[in-house]
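Late entry, evening session. Most of the bench is empty. Finally got around to the prediction I had been postponing all week. Sequence below, unchanged from the version circulated by S.P.
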Amino acid sequence: MSRIESFECNICLNTAALCANKDGFSLYKCLGCDNVFVHPQPAFEELATQVYSGTVGYHAEKVCDISLLPVSKDFARVLDYMDTVNSNQSSRNICDIGASNGEFLFAAKQRGYIPFGVELNESTAAVANSNGLNVAVGTFDKAGFAQDQFNFVHMGDVLEHVPDPRGLLKQVHSKLALDGEIIISTPNLDCLWAEYTQSLYKICRIPISSFTPPQHLFQFSVNNLKLLLEQTGFEVVTHWYGTPPSLEYELGAMHLVRRIKKSQGINKAALIAYALFAFTLYTLGYAVVSALRLMGILKKDFTVVMVARAVK
């Protein structure tokens, strides 16, 4: 952190300065809109083959018979919203970008929607297709979808993984029908939990669980995501907050256990003590945030779902 560098934010074009390092990656935060991004970014080919490929075990734990799975609360809320908008049952074509094994699409098909999807991971796309879905392997722009084909496009925890969010949103805009809507779920840095974990990094250098490069290349908040959508031809309709990650996930996302396994001798003992200290602070903070959530005091949360209509 001794070397000061800055880059232009790709959302608001203000200066972004170095804010954290994690797992060999540098993260920069925009001084204008608070967008956080990885720089330099890994090549797309590296992400496709070494991060999201089935050959490296990505999503290997996904269930194959998705008919056995209950519909998650977050998926149900999205589908309920779609049903409300589509009360006349005329808007049925949907696309799920980053469809994984097809859990969302399967639930949507059960409600009468016509499902399409794209997924980088060949293994999970095969699972989706084996469950009667139509999921193409690859990226949205290469899938051959028609102009104005979709009434809804869903991206659940996807946009933060994309090297060019602006480009993808423009592509989605062109494939949405008149008054078609995009529904995006993504981590929200403008919340108490994210602020707390970033403070722990600044004070104690505890790795920020919210930052998970190279998987997450961008970290949005409500305001800069709204700005990006408006810049790419959308009008934001509404947003709400979804289920936050579990404490177990947050502790694992610090990657301290991984570092302990690779260390030896006195360094390992010191790292174990440091990890226990970090886990304690995370657990206490998570308990407080959870209590405030249960009491209805939190107005913002760590996962935001934003809906925007394509302006044609």
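Two things to note before I forget:
The chain is about 35% helix and 25% strand.
The mean pLDDT is 92.
Will write this up properly tomorrow.
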